[in-house]
Every structure is written in C-alpha cells, then in structure tokens.
Amino acid sequence: MQINRREFVMLMSSVAVALAAPRVSAQALRVRREIRTLSPTDLDALKAGVQAMRALPKDNYRSWLYQAGVHGAPAADSAGVPDAATYWNQCIHGGLHFLSWHRWELLFIEEIMRQMSGHCDFALPYWDYVADGFLPDPLRLPADGTNPLYNDTRAAALNAGTAGLSGMHLGSLDETAFASFSSLLYGNPHSAVHGQVGGNMGSVPTAARDPVFYLHHCNIDRYWECWSRKGGTNPGAPWPGQAFPFRTLSGHRDARAGDVGRTGDVGYTYDSLPCAPPIHPDLLDWLRRLRYLRLRVRPRPIPGPDPWPWRAVFTTEPFTITGQPLAVVLSQGELQKAGMPAALGGADGTVAVTLHGVEMSKAARAGGFFVDAWVAPVAALRSGDTRNALRIGSFSSFDLSVHAGHTGHDAAARASVPSPIAMPLGERAMRLIAGAKDDLAIIFVRQGLVDRKGQPVDDQGQATLFQVEGMGLEVAAATR
Ligand SMILES: [Cu+2]
Q1: Which residues span the domain enclosing 185?
Q2: Residue 18 C-alpha to ligand 1 middle, in angstroms?
Q3: CA-only gyration radius of the chain, Å
Q4: 194 CA distance to ligand 1 centroid (A)?
Q5: What does the alpha-carbon distance between residue 246 and residue 251 come to, in Å, rounded to a whole number?
Q6: pTM: predicted TM-score of the whole model, two decimal places
Q7: What sign for the dihedral angle of Cα 301, 473, 470, 358?
Q8: How confident is the chain (480 residues) per 10-residue block, as mean pLDDT?
Q9: What is the distance in A from the centroid of ligand 1 to the CA of 401?
Q10: From the CA of 84, how far away is ligand 1's center (Å)?
C-alpha cells in the first residue's frame, strides 16, 4: 500500500493519540458518585488520600499545596518550588478550554489520590449543589483539623449547616453551540458556587486548597458530559490539538484537549447524568425590587488588559452594583447612534457584555454571594413580563481574582489593575439584543446563601458590592 506524505502524517498523529490516551480497554469505567451516596469505605479513601497529600512538603508534586498551585497560587508561594514556572497557575477560565483543562486537572489529581489513598478503585466524588445546596456533612463535620475535608475559610453559615447555596441555574444545557454552553456554565453554577462558598474558594490563587474545589469541578465536568449526551459537539480544530503541561505520576505530560472530549475516552463516568435543566429561577422575586438606572452610552472604550480579545462597540457611564436588583437601561436611540445593531453583524457570532474597572467593596470581599446578569426589553419588564428575560452570565469575587495569581506575566502590575469581566452571549441573547426595537435593560441580581426556609441569611440590601467604571458591549476582536 502506498500512502502520500499527508496521509502518513495523519496516520502517525493518530498513532500518537492512541499511545497517549490512558489505556481503558475492556475494563469497566470508574464511576464518580455524589459524595452523599459514598460508602464508608469510599469516603475513608477520599479522606486518606487528602490526608496523605497534606503530609507532603509543597515542593513534592503529589502534595496538597503543589496540586493547589497547579490551579493557582499567590505569587509568593512559588518560592522553593523549582518547577512552579512550568506547572503552576495553569488554570484556564474563559475561552474554549475551561472545561478541557479542568477535566485533565481532575484526572491527574484523581490518579495521585488513588495511589496515595491505597484504594486502587478510587474515584473522585462530586457535589450536586443543584439538587441540594447545603454543604454535605463530610465536608464540614467534624469542624476541626482532624477532618481533612474541612476548611474554615468558607462562609460561616455554610460550614455551620444553617445555609445553602441559592440561584443555581442550568440554562447552559439548552445551548447548542459549545462556546455558549461553556461560558454560561462557567458563570452559573461554576462562578456562582466559588463566590457563595467564599474564603479560599472565592479566589483563583487559593481555590484549590479547599477540598470542595475538586467536588465542585467534578460536578461541572459532569454537566459537560450531560451536554455531550444531549448531542452537543466539542469544537473542531484547533481545539482538539491544544495541549496543557502537567506533572503526572508518569512524568511530564502534554495533555491534549481532544483526548478528553468524552469521559468514557479516559476511563470514567458518573453515577447519574441528569441531562434536563431542572431549575426555573423565580424571576418575579427580583422584578418586584428592581431599581431602574438609565445610563448614557459613550463611544470611547475603556482599554482592557493586554491582550484583550474584545473590541468595544460602546461603553456606559460608571455605576454601582448593590444588594438590590438593578436594571441598567440603555436607550435604543443611543444604541443606534453607537452603531448597533450593524456592529453585531460583523462579529462572527461572538459578542460579550463586559464590565470594566470593577472594584470590589469590603462587604463584597466577605463572599457568600454572586451576581446573575440578565438581558430583557425594558417595556416588557415594566409591565411585569419576564418571559423574554435571558440570563447572560454570572460573576463573583472569583472572576475578579483570575489575573492576580498568574506569574507568567507581570503579576504585580496585573494584580493592581481591577480585572474586567466578559460575559460572552449565547445565541438567544444575541438575537434578543440585535433584534430589539426598544430600550434594553441589563439586569444585575445579587444571589446569596439562604436558610432552610429559602430566606437570605445575609441580605446586603443597599451595601455597595461592586463599583463599575463602565459596562461595554464588545465584539470578538480579529485574532492577532
Ligand atoms: Cu473553578
């Protein structure tokens, strides 16, 4: 058989993939279970694994602190870790590799825990906070140093078992495009959980120190598999070829996104894959308390960090987000003057609502909450009709800490500049904005911990949470 050079290259690269992928063969898939359904033996394995990792010094790549640093670490922490420049601060938030990078991260730490726990069938559990937002008991009891799963930096009411997460939303599972699915899932429940758990979890450079981090990301990973089962397809080239460096039990690994497209490709599955989004948020609750704020549109964009993958169509005046639901009203006349909706037409389908110069108040730093953002036609809202309100994203303290821990760039400079937040729009929100004939509202609603009766435990009312220099509507900039 004769093959040409192109075919040869293709053949060889598929051989390389086959060699690189962990051997699954005829073995049964490992099953990741909800932590509340673990057998005592499996729970002991989890505790033993975390305990053994905690006992190692941070320059050992199997240690708890080293693995937390792979996700993110405060700049000073990398001292004494010789390969931190290669393997630390690698987490990807935003863009198309949020899910693939974290799937690999979970696989490698799961492998380490399996070895260190001494349980050869160990699988990471997940926390299904959509089903039950109260922190599972093993993570909070006993509430002291004898429990390797306990972390005392979390929101106190959550650790006490008197409050649970609220505002969880799975509308992302209805999106057909990977980019829309991934970015909506990223906001809620992903950032929503980070922000409400608070403490270590509320900030990128410390998030993975809290064991709940891995249970949270397993659940996010589970929704990716749900979406795939519903028929969602992962992006084409160059997405599958993107590789991430990891220090693994078998040495250095360039882990490719395309090799973890489905959980079965890498030997595991979940005990349950609830692929229908069950949550219908109570829109009327915030509608009753909504404050309207008309903002002027400015043609001049506020410069983002470099590189910043968005180009502004317009930016608004400054405003403040408090604990009270806020509708920022944009006049259709001004939107037209700013070049809408023509500007959206040339945007290859990618448009984001952005927040620039966001400063967190002291009250906000305490965590325990996140902000959901929606878009809706103003006239409909005022008449009490929320049928056309669409969630466009969510953000929390976590998103404002994304740049702070990355050492590859000028960490000090980046940490001192408030990070912008970009919420890429799904297809339906795009259509709503592009097709609007009247004024539009972008709505910000604080969501926080609630007690067993669903009442907020720390309603911050008028307290300032975020000061925003300007909200923008931006289109994807041409790739540089
Ligand atoms: Cu995360």
Answers
A1: 20-270
A2: 29
A3: 23
A4: 7
A5: 8
A6: 0.88
A7: negative
A8: 39 40 64 98 98 97 96 92 92 88 97 96 96 97 97 96 93 90 94 96 95 98 97 96 96 97 97 75 78 89 76 91 95 88 67 91 86 94 87 89 46 51 87 90 94 85 90 75
A9: 12
A10: 20
